[in-house]
Amino acid sequence: MEPKDIAHALNADLYMEDNIETLNSKTYYFQNAKFHKSRLKSVVRVAQGLFLKTVETLALDADNRKRGYRVVLFDLRGRIVYASQFPDSCGTERRVQKDFEAWLGKFCPQAYCKDLLENERAKLAERIHAIDNLLAD
To answer: How many angstroms separate the Cα of 123 from the Cα of each of 9, 30, 38?
Structure first.
């Protein structure tokens, strides 16, 4: 499966650039994150644009005196696929990157996308059935 074909089948756009603007249209995550004193440190495309990885710093206390890092991976629809668990694994940037790389080594983007496509097919089949019922009346 080619990434562009997966994106087309899901009626979504690939992440074409390493910037947050491509994600802002798909999720309100970072608008909410600003309220909680989080700051975006980096944005990187993963698996030829099927996913977008972000690294953010976040407040670990109410006074924003202690900060930690978190990695979050989003799919084509802006859904969170991976997020460092708060506050347990929100340590140094190096630690959260290492944890993410270990997780990514076990993650299969093709299997994830296949599940997305199967779910999309099931939803589409339900819609077609509902339309057929309406037309039969």
So the answer is: 13, 28, 35
